């Protein structure tokens, strides 16, 4: 009985460990169609250049901080959490961004992502909106 309990505990631990690769439904190129920050919609021209590209163990962000800015990140995903969790760490940095995500739309071609800039794990958002005066960002993206 003791060995069986240990095996069950090990299986549960493995099942709860974050994935280091993007699930198939997240793989690909996603272009921002809208963006919210500090509780307010951001101008459309700010969202236009923002692109999230998921490939395997990487996320490449383009356009955050200007169209010429591109940042490669490692990822950890917990697709069993509600909402689903996405942690990404820019290569060469020790600062992890703690985000949530949701895939929707008729063709599963809409992605929502929310996070707090400079936040710790306990500041991870629980909704896809931001609060007035916060460092939160929320994006709606479309697969292209």
Describe the secondary structure blueprint for this structure:
Layout (H helix, E strand, L loop, with lengths): L1 H15 L11 E10 L2 E2 L2 H5 L2 E5 L2 E6 L2 E13 L5 E7 L6 E8 L5 E7 L19 E8 L1
Antiparallel strand pairs: 1-2, 1-3, 1-9, 3-4, 4-5, 5-6, 6-7, 7-8, 8-9
Termini Cα gap: 52 Å
Helical percentage = 10-25%
| 3D shape | globular
Major sheet, described briefly?
A: 8 strands, antiparallel, barrel
| Strand residues, percent | over 45%
Q: Report the C-alpha radius of gyration, rounded.
A: 16 Å
Strand order of the largest sheet: 1-3-4-5-6-7-8-9
Query: How would you spell out the order of helices and strands?
Result: HEEHEEEEEEE
Number of strands: 9
Explain what the structure shows:
The protein is mainly beta. The protein is built from 2 helices and 9 strands.
Summarize the structure.
The protein contains two helices and nine strands; from the N terminus they run αββαβββββββ. It has 144 residues and is mainly beta.
Key features of this structure:
2 helices; 8-stranded antiparallel beta barrel; disordered N terminus; 9 strands; mainly beta; 144 residues; 14% helix; globular
